[in-house]
Design brief:
The structure holds 2 protein chains of 2 kinds.
Chain A (H helix, E strand, L loop, with lengths): L1 E4 L3 H17 L21 H36 L4 H26 L20 H13 L2 H34 L3 H13 L13 E3 L2 E4 L4 H4 L5 H4 L3 E2 L5 H17 L11 H4 L1
Parallel strand pairs in A: 3-4
Antiparallel strand pairs in A: 2-3
Chain B lengths: L2 H20 L8 E4 L1 H12 E3 H9 L6 H23 L3 H29 L3 E3 L3 H23 L6 H9 L2 H34 L3 H13 L6 H4 L7 H10 L3 H5 L4 H23 L6
Antiparallel strand pairs in B: 2-3
Helix pairs in contact in B: 4-5, 5-6, 5-7, 8-9, 8-11, 11-13
The chains are: A mainly alpha, B mainly alpha.
């Protein structure tokens, strides 16, 4: 006779017991508690809440690495815009940037691991985009330590970069549609215009992997109203927009789109701290 | 302790220890008891794969149905014909020739798939022996190739592509070429955009630097297969862009960035070179 289980509860207990036993007798290596993993323990706190805080802290470590890569790029841009800067100003600006990268990382991790309780209906304000936190902090710091003219010039470069990014994503989305639907030049133009007018970060989800329904590609996050009116009847038969999403789903897409933005340099080694900023 | 008492204690100990020592240590309420012999037989049955039952699901993307998959492939090719009609205003006879070519392309793909199907038809694979496992792997590889045949129908080497220039008159051909060039340019721009978004951020490029690098990339487009390239979303286009950077005049490129940026850019270029073979193998770049 043998036993199979449709749930994991019993196996989990067995595994947990084995692991704790092995760890106790030194038969299995145990990961040491790192300083950054440590969470202040409040005896009155709900264990589930404490676990969430722990998870957020761990995830934030990943996000901090990604935000730091972006920060080094921003500092390079800032150096190009402002030229030479007094040593004290440089250090103050870079330090504020690093602090902002840590804050952004924490906020991103909080978005990734949502609160245990359902949000109240009256508390549906969209969270701020953590991606913008470091560059906003740098701009503010430049204004404080260097001058408003330089801060304005830096902010303008950031705005232009953001415009390029948005235009690029729209272009990529239409390129994907074109590869599926064989659009004409005028259709591509019309769809681009429509997407620009109704731009939303969650549209970026269209560029995530491939989702198909019966061999036909589905376009998550892409409003059908931006595309369908510009298609021929034959093309419409091959275009499956994601069915209308509710507020929660749209919010989740938006968060994923932000994470995707920060993760895009995932396979790139960081440039390293430029000593010019910290000497 | 009386003899009866000792007997009771021993009996109780046996009752407690025997299940622990001989059987599973814990058993959940949801556990299902299965006879081991029946399970072995079922396991052996699972190790035998009837290929006739498996092949449709593996070969045909639409519900594992040959006819529906054929029709979907044809619909995709007919979209190309419709686009051509939209641009050139085809006469009925021209349109009919294009449709025939599209149908023949799909029929050829289906014939090739059928040949693979016939090769495996009526066979059962035994996964318990190494020869069976190796054969199962071959079936999977063939299934991938078979699916690619449907995806590639109407592509570069298709009859449809060959027929089009021959049936158009001079004016139509010129319109079609212009539209094809615009499409190729648009698609390449999508690749450049996908790569430059990353460079902008990682290198901290100014708008002027960014536009200058874009300009260089747009001047030297690679030949790409958009259907293959965008199949996985925006994962591969940045790598194609990085490979595009590797093909540029490096001195010109270096002149556009500072030393620190060049060091970082080198990392992107090396990744592009490293991906070249894979991109070619997957027919995402055509060279």
């Amino acid at each position: 006779m043998t036993i199979t289980s449709s749930r994991f509860s019993v196996r989990f207990l067995r595994a947990a017991a084995t692991i704790s036993l092995l760890a106790g007798i030194g038969g299995m290596p145990v990961r040491g508690v790192l300083a950054e993993d440590r969470v202040d323990v409040d005896p009155a706190e709900d264990p589930a809440q404490m676990q969430r805080r722990q998870q957020i802290k761990q995830q934030a470590t990943h996000w901090e690495q990604q935000f730091t890569k972006m920060l080094y790029g921003d500092l390079e841009l800032l150096r190009a815009v402002c030229g030479d800067l007094p040593r004290e100003s440089r250090r103050a600006i870079a330090t504020s940037g690093e602090q902002a990268a840590r804050e952004a990382a924490l906020q991103m991790a909080e978005l990734q691991i949502p609160p245990l309780a359902e949000p109240k209906p009256d508390a549906e304000k969209s969270p701020d985009n953590p991606v913008t936190i470091p560059s906003a902090a740098l701009t503010k710091s430049v204004a404080e330590h260097v001058g408003s003219e330089q801060a304005k010039a830096f902010a303008e470069q950031l705005t232009r970069r953001d415009d390029r990014r948005k235009a690029a994503i729209i272009h990529e989305i239409v390129a994907v549609l074109d590869s599926e639907l064989v659009l004409t030049a005028s259709q591509r133009e019309e769809i681009e215009r429509s997407l620009r007018q109704q731009w939303n970060d969650s549209m970026m989800m269209t560029l995530q992997g491939i989702v198909t329904a019966n061999g036909i590609r589905v376009f998550p996050g892409l409003p059908g109203a931006c595309v369908s009116p510009h298609l021929t009847k034959a093309q419409r038969q091959r275009f499956l927009p994601q069915p209308d999403a509710n507020r929660q789903q749209r919010g989740a897409w938006q968060h994923q789109a932000w994470m995707q933005t920060v993760n895009m340099l995932n396979n790139v080694q960081p440039a390293g701290r430029d000593p010019w900023w910290f000497e | 302790m009386t003899g009866r008492g000792v007997f009771r204690m021993v009996a109780a100990l046996v009752l407690v220890t025997v299940p622990v020592l001989s059987g599973p240590s814990l058993r959940g309420e949801d556990d299902t008891v299965i006879d081991a012999a029946a399970q072995r037989a079922q396991g052996q049955q699972h190790q035998q794969i009837d290929l006739d039952q498996q092949m449709n699901g593996m070969f045909f993307p639409v519900e594992g149905n040959a006819e529906k998959s054929r029709q979907q492939c044809l619909d995709r090719l007919l979209l190309q014909v419709s686009a051509l009609d939209e641009i050139c205003g085809l006469k009925a006879e021209q349109r009919r020739k294009c449709e025939v070519a599209a149908k023949l392309d799909v029929a050829r793909a289906i014939d090739e798939i059928e040949a693979v199907r016939q090769r495996y038809s009526g066979r059962t694979i035994d996964l318990q022996n190494p020869a069976g496992q190796a054969e199962w792997q071959r079936v999977h590889q063939d299934a991938q190739a078979v699916r690619a045949k449907l995806q590639d129908a109407g592509g570069e080497t298709s009859l449809l592509r060959k027929v089009i220039p021959g049936i158009l008159d001079e004016e139509q051909r010129s319109d079609w070429r212009r539209e094809s060039d615009l499409r190729a340019q648009y698609q390449w721009r999508g690749v450049v955009d996908a790569g430059m978004v990353q460079l902008d951020i990682a290198l901290g490029l100014t708008s002027e630097q960014s536009e200058a690098i874009r300009g260089l990339l747009m001047e030297k487009p690679l030949r790409i297969n958009p259907a293959k390239l965008w199949m996985h979303g925006s994962h591969f286009p940045p790598f194609v862009c990085r490979y595009g950077l590797a093909k540029l005049d490096q001195a010109k490129l270096k002149a556009l960035v500072n030393e620190r940026q060049w060091k970082m850019l080198g990392q992107f270029i090396e990744q592009g070179k490293g991906m070249k073979e894979h991109l070619k193998q997957q027919k995402m770049i055509l060279e």
